Amino acid sequence: MGTSDLVFRLGGDEFLIASIARRDRNAPRRFAQGILNLLKSPLELNQIDFVVRASIGISLCLEPGLDVEQLVNDADLAMYQAKANGGNCIRVYRLSMREQLDFVTKTVHRLRKSIELKQLELHYQLQFELCPPYRPSGLEALLRWRDHENNYIAPEIFIPLAEEHGLMPEINKWVLSRACEDNKVLISEGLLDVAVAVNICGRFFAQDDFVALVSTTLSRVALPVSRLEVEVTETIAIHDVSRAVDTIIALHDIGVEVAIDDFGAGYFSLKLLKSLPVDRLKIDKLFISDFPNNAFDKAVVQAVLNIAKSVGVQVVAEGVETLEQANALREQGCQFGQGYWYSKPLSIDDLKEALKNNHIFGQRCL
Ligand code: C2E
Ligand code: MG
Ligand code: MG
Questions:
Q1: Based on the domain organization, do 171 and 88 belong to the same domain?
Q2: Ligand sitting nearest the alpha carbon of 142
Q3: Whose CA is nearest to atom 17 of ligand 1?
Q4: Are residues 239 and 213 in the same domain?
Q5: Host H or E run for residue 72
Q6: What is the count of structural domains for the chain?
Q7: What residue's CA is closest to ligand 1, atom 11?
Q8: 142 Cα: distance to centroid of ligand 1 (angstroms)
Q9: Judgement on whether residues 268 and 123 belong to the same structural domain of the protein
Q10: What phi, psi does 290 have (nearest 5°)?
Q11: Which domain holds residue 34?
């Protein structure tokens, strides 16, 4: 540090360094790197080594007319970016950081409002047997959200935000309830009689009252237990495998089956597969999009099918978009498929209409 540099403590573990870099725009970054290098060596206190880490945010005043408050706010935002990126690193403020923050704040606010006003929607995508008689074998409930301009926002955008801001348990609760109610109607009206699969995020699955909630929802709706399936990813076992196993066993005890979603795409290991007593694997669409022409994908699909067969687990291929894929999957021994080739996700009204008229899927399966 030079003699013209100032250090302030903002509060807690937040410090502010004001430094005059003059013409060299890279000087602040080098300066910050120097701080990180200094902190690398442990500090000894009472014969115990302490390692201090730092997340450093930098904002540069490039033009005359210094707005100190704005500079501090910008540096603060860059510092939070550094923290979000794992900490012990440096981030320089950019306008896009504030734009991203504004987007997140507004989106989360609107999502919260939509939950309150019960404006979320569920669409349903059918799964099919790949072999004769090619019957529908299941139904997946997929969340849909229209923003204030009535445009659908992709689940890949709003679900991670909902997870980050603690909204997912409430959303999952609503999805579970709505999916059971809609499936009950499909069964009662004699339109379809399969299990509805509900995507459940890791945090909700880990809640103490999750299985009790599933059970009371099924009783309230009077949906047969075999007509609900829980779909999860490997995130259920990230923190505690034995707890995830207990929850799956408790679901089995009440008669609800469990599928592993996006199999092959995440961090799901074969060790995890050995531990978790699941009923179904859904091969991620990543391996189906170039299947059967891509040799690697073909080998992955075959390997998953072989493992599943030997441990008595069913397999559903996701993202089946062509007849060629459906035929090749059947030839390789896959039992079930889901994808645009058969049907896109549909609103409950459109699904009922399609089932009544027996159209869209019929000829696709022949
Ligand atoms: P997912 O559970 O793996 O769902 C399958 C996704 O693949 C859906 O995307 C579906 O629309 C899409 N898809 C189906 N067939 C095809 C196909 O032939 N080709 C291609 N390219 N895509 C196909 P969607 O609806 O956008 O959902 C994305 C993800 O968001 C879901 O992936 C799931 O992880 C998550 N999600 C959706 N609804 C819920 C929900 O209610 N709760 C939770 N926790 N997550 C949900
Ligand atoms: Mg799914
Ligand atoms: Mg999936």
A1: no
A2: 1
A3: 319
A4: yes
A5: helix 68-84
A6: 2
A7: 345
A8: 6
A9: yes
A10: -105, 10
A11: 6-93
